[in-house]
Write a structure and sequence with these properties.
It is built from eight helices and no strands. It is mostly helical.
Length: about 130
């Protein structure tokens, strides 16, 4: 089961980009992942379009959502397919290192059980 969120809830998306997407009828992540990539690049540019599309893709995993999609993207995970093939233990170590480096707070890092849930839900989506 995939989740869909308002574009404005994705991390790092500025109000101008949100307005540009809304102008072409994209107001949630479902519409975004189903939008033609070339048209998306024309609306927001190639590099921002790739980032926004990756965030929207990852946010479809229910336990990831908008809360952790940015963290996963910064950790090098750019798609549900890639997440589904990740080792939960290795991904947890990577996320922990990144989270501590960026926020300098180990206590805010998702636990290994949370990361396992991300991977399992991604596998369900990919196989479904």
């Amino acid at each position: 089961m995939r989740c869909h969120w308002p574009i404005a809830d994705l991390p790092g998306i500025d109000p101008t980009t949100t307005a540009d997407l809304a102008a072409v009828g994209i107001v949630n992540t479902l519409q975004l992942v189903n939008f033609n990539p070339q048209q998306l690049a024309a609306v927001v540019g190639t590099r921002p379009g790739q980032k926004i599309l990756a965030l929207a893709n990852l946010a479809q995993v229910p336990s990831v959502g908008c809360q952790y999609c940015g963290l996963l993207l910064h950790a090098g995970v750019a798609s549900i397919e890639q997440l589904s093939q990740s080792s939960p233990q290795q991904l947890h170590r990577l996320v922990l290192r990144l989270h501590v480096a960026l926020l300098q707070r180990r206590d805010l890092t998702p636990g290994v059980n949370q990361v396992q849930t991300w991977v399992q839900q991604a596998k369900t989506i990919v196989s479904g």
